[in-house]
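ARCHIVE CARD
Drawer: 12
Card no.: 0347
Subject: one protein chain, sequence and derived structure
Cross-reference: see card 0346
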Amino acid sequence: MRRYEMMLIVSDTLEEDAAQAVVEKAKAALVDQGGTILDEAWWGKRAFAYEIAKRDHGFYAVLDMEATSEAVAEVERQLKILDEVVRFKTVRPDVRIRANR
């Protein structure tokens, strides 16, 4: 299992409790696939740097997790289906980018 970090942005058209429920759904999907949540951070409602789908705010959450690449792919597939999720990004924090010389 590898370590991943995922940032989720949930639509601000929801109440904060409903937005947190969407994040809980993503966490449950990861655990169902055999992954583990190491840490999580709820950043709350924040302004976007630019307008996305005619919205300028969203609820942000960050999940630090360990999972297989198949588990992450399944969670991302499920997040793509949810209308409440505006954006998400998954990265491997231990991977370093090498500059071309």
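Annotation on reverse: The CA atoms of residues 76 and 84 lie 14 Å apart. The radius of gyration is 14 Å.
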